[in-house]
Amino acid sequence: MRITLDIPEELATRLNSLEDKLPQILELGLRELAAISGTGFTGTAEVLEFLTQLPTPEEIIALRPSVALQAQINALLEKNRSVGLTPAEEQIWQQYEYLEHLVRMVKAKAYLKLKAG
After folding, report:
1. Is residue 1 part of a domain?
2. Are 69 and 53 in contact (CB under 8 A)?
3. Which domain holds residue 19?
């Protein structure tokens, strides 16, 4: 697909030597924009903010996805079942999977701490 853009001269100069990487630059920029707007990353931020509060082991074990995060996960699951995910959505899904892995590790350590104490 061919796209024509009007961009400032300074930006054109910077991009001139990166012409072969423009699709990657656009993809990364779109991901960054999505992260800034919260699309797809709201749940991740919620979990990280929770952990920065240094919760007790009991609070960690009780941690569950927020309603918004669960809705995002459910929407991705349903779309994957019906029509498949776009590359950007697949990236978001992989981030959710990694976040779930980290939360499981934190919960396991919290459980061990409770058991030892």
Report:
1. no
2. no
3. 8-37
Q: In this predicted structure, what is the pLDDT of residue 36?
A: 53
Per the structure, the count of domains in the chain is: 2
Would you state the structure tokens that stand for residue 58, as one six-digit string?
């009991």
DSSP assignment of 4-62, as one string?
A: -----HHHHHHHHTTGGGHHHHHHHHHHHHHHHHTTTTHHHHHHHHHHHT---HHHHHT
Q: At what angle do helices 67-82 and 42-52 cross, to 10 degrees?
A: 140
pTM of model > 0.85: no
| Predicted confidence (pLDDT) per residue in 10-36, tens digit | 988 988 998 899 888 888 887 767 655
Same-domain check for residues 58 and 106: yes
87, HSE (Cβ side, Cα atoms, 13 Å): 5
